[in-house]
Amino acid sequence: MTPTGPSPRAIIRINLTFFFGAVLCAVAWLCWPDTKEAWRMGLISIVYGLGGVSMIVKGIIEIIQHLFRDRAVNKFQRQGRAPQADRLADNDALRKSGMIK
Question: Is-contact 19 56, C-beta < 8 A?
Fold first, then answer.
């Protein structure tokens, strides 16, 4: 079996990572305060924003890892020649090599 890309589980994990990163960034944008008195919400918004950005970066890194892995597997598969069938040894060949009498 030759790998043809990430598994469906990895694809779902990457998509969920992007989704939750986008949700955290959206919550950070919604939590940003309009007044100076609500500065605490600004801190919470910054934390949510950093979490969202880090999740998006994590998803991008995972995609890059899958691309490099596929590239390495394809490079390895291009080496060598295609598999070939070998002929079976008959009795004459076995006698000639001294394996049987």
Answer: no
